TrEMBL record:
Domain HAMP: from-to ranges: 196-248
Primary site of residence: membrane
Membrane topology designation: Multi-pass membrane protein
Transmembrane segments: 12-31, 176-198
Name listed for the protein in its UniProt record: histidine kinase
PROSITE patterns in alphabetical order: HAMP, HIS_KIN
EC supergroup of this enzyme: transferase
Amino acid sequence: MKSILSKLWLGITSLVLFILIIIWIFQVGFLNKFYVSERTNNLLKEGNEIVSIITKSKNPQIVSEETMSRINSTISSFNAQVIIIDSSNNVLFFNAPHNVPKRNTETIPERLLSKINIEIEKGETFIKKNTRLNDSFYFITVGIPIKENGNMNGYFILNSPLAPIKETTSILKNQLSIITLASIIIATFLSLLLAKLFTNPILKITKTSKQIANGDFTARVKLESKDEIRDLGDTINNMAVQLGQIENFRREFIANTSHELKTPISLIRAYSELIMDVDGEDKQARNEHLQVIIDESKRLNTMVEDILYLSEMEAGYYKPEFKNFSVIDTINSVIKKLSFLCSGKNININIIAANENTLISGDEAKMYQVFFNLINNAINYSHENGNIIIKVNNINDMVRIEVIDNGKGIPKEDLPYVWDRFYKVDKSHKRNNSSTGLGMAIIKNILEAHKFNYGIESELNKGTMIWIEI
């Protein structure tokens, strides 16, 4: 398999060679045709302009000063031979090109006219390329009829010698050979340099990606350039950070889950062993042990359900089903279900609502769970004989719900983490009978799935307020 370095080098070098081949084809192969075509077009254009001047003169049979001036300019520009003949083929004007040998120049008009006699008889514009008048020179001959009111008054003939193209082509070949050799050497060096500059960052990215794939999430791509490859490197670095965070979460999740599951399992095992040791007549002790086993089994089952439920939401499988429902009725239903916890700690819950018929749009079952977890937490972290206030305010098109307790509160440094799984504000990790450590994470995922705003405010030993804006 060819490396990207060799592919880039071959690609750039091949491109330079292709361009050089095109130059050779046009500069050497088509040089003669191009030169003859350009000279022909220029002579034809010049001849038509002079014929126009002759036609406009008072006496076309006499070469005027204006015509002579333009003819001299043409002769100078094209080293051309100009012949003007009348309708009877009498030569009215003639000159010989400067680079034609002097010998027999006086016979050139007769020799030329004899070669183009058929074309002259047709009375039309004609072009003859490579007309040979002697052993050394070839000419381009352009003939333009001089007509006035449809009557033929004569012919204007331009005869221009062709420069020796073979010598020019030979010189051009030598020059192009040197340019080609130099271009290939320079192109090879520059393409290799550019290929290295381009591939080195890619090799760094590849090396770092392999390190990340092998579990080294501290690996980073360090690039100095400011281009798309730098953006790719930054993306790889960001991916490493994200994967590192996921790996840390995975380890913490396993550790926390193991810790949370270990205790109920240990209690179930311990009390099961105690039941075996209890005498058959001591029913009270046996019932107490069995109740502990039942409670811990329920707790274990709730934790597993919460873990599965949270995993489903974070994987993106959960989509809320929106419908309108009464928020006050839902909160009252939650309070009724948690009334036994309130009575145990003598906690009073008050609902303050501007409108008892306030409706919100959302997934009613999931929002029930949100309110259940919020109020349950408020009860758990409230002191005995405490108060919990639930405010429901209508603000324009928004409903703001606040759950306020006057309990233990949360330290300021812990507030950003209360939404994390298994996060413990109480660093002693004392267990609460009804807590799985996943309630706030579930609340967060449900609210974010609904695209509802939420937040928390708290002060240590004064209480906590959690708000939701719908």
